[in-house]
Each structure stands twice: as C-alpha cells, then as structure tokens.
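User: Here's a protein and a ligand (heme C). What would the complex look like?
Assistant: Let me lay out the input and then the predicted complex.
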Amino acid sequence: MSKGVLFRISLWILCLACCANAEITYSHDVAAIFYQKCTVCHHPDDVAMSLMDYKSARPGFRAIRQAVLLKRMPPWFADPGTGHFSNDPSLSESESQTITRWVDEGAKEGNPSELPQLLSTWMVGVLANPTRCSTLGRIMC
Ligand code: HEC
C-alpha cells in the first residue's frame, strides 16, 4: 500500500473517531434548541421552569427528556393527520435526538464561551420587557 493511501485511511479513521466521540453539551448544542423552541414560554417570568440558562435547565433534565420523547413539548395542538403547518414549533428528529443524548450523557454544561450569541441578546430583550411572548406563547403564557 502506498504512503498516500495509508495516510488517507488514517485520516479517515481519525475523523470517524472524532465524530463518534463528539460530546453533546448544553453550551455547544442544546442551548440553541432551547432558545429557538422552548424559551418563548420557559423563561424566568413564566409558570413553566426557566430554560434560559444551564443552571435553571439542569435540575429538570429528566423531565425534559420525557417531555421531548413523548412529544409533549413544545405543546402543539394541531392534528398531525391534517398535514404540516408552517408555524409548527415541534422539534425536528435531530433536535430531539440531541436533547435526549445530552440527558443520557449526563446533561453536561460544556464551555460557556460556546453559548450562542443570540441567547444573551434575547435575554436582554426579555429582561427589558418580561411580557414579550410569541403568538403561540401568548395562548399559554
Ligand atoms: C407554548 C409554550 C411552551 C413551549 C414552546 C414549551 N413549553 Fe414546556 N411547558 C409549558 C407549560 C405551560 C408547562 C407547564 C404545564 C404543563 O406541564 O403542561 C410546561 C412544562 C414543561 C416541563 C415540565 C414537565 C412536563 O412535561 O409537564 C418540561 C420538562 C418542559 N415543559 C420542557 C420543554 C422543552 C424542552 C421545550 C422545548 C423543546 C418546551 N418545554 C417548550 C409551555 C411550553
């Protein structure tokens, strides 16, 4: 086998090993999903627990897994048989897998410097105006 081929094979193996081991963390993977799909209701001024930051979300991690697996959250009352709605807030298959894997791997925080910038921007907006809610959120909040 030529050196070039060997080199390419080892690169490939290295790559596979890295991908398989990529750890799911709150900061790197989960915060962005919570921000997009959950925090409109789950913020500090609401009845539901806050999912705005790791410290608030971590204690509820088992309930979060249940709610996601059973598709109880985000709440969505349209009949799936009626077709797809453009404003359907449901989690995609990969989003719900990311959340369940995160819980199964111990719900780690990861590196806070990897938190999506949007999260802090949104938080500033909510603190300035706590009643802010989306149309769907308004039904519930
Ligand atoms: C439209 C508003 C809304 C959205 C969006 C939403 N939730 Fe909720 N959630 C609620 C309310 C209200 C409750 C409390 C009442 C209840 O349990 O139904 C709740 C309760 C929960 C609970 C407590 C246990 C349970 O199942 O009742 C968990 C865990 C939870 N939500 C996780 C999530 C996650 C994770 C997301 C995003 C993927 C999300 N929620 C999105 C409104 C929402």
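Summary: Helices lie at 3-21, 26-37, 54-57, 61-69, 93-104, 117-128, 135-140.
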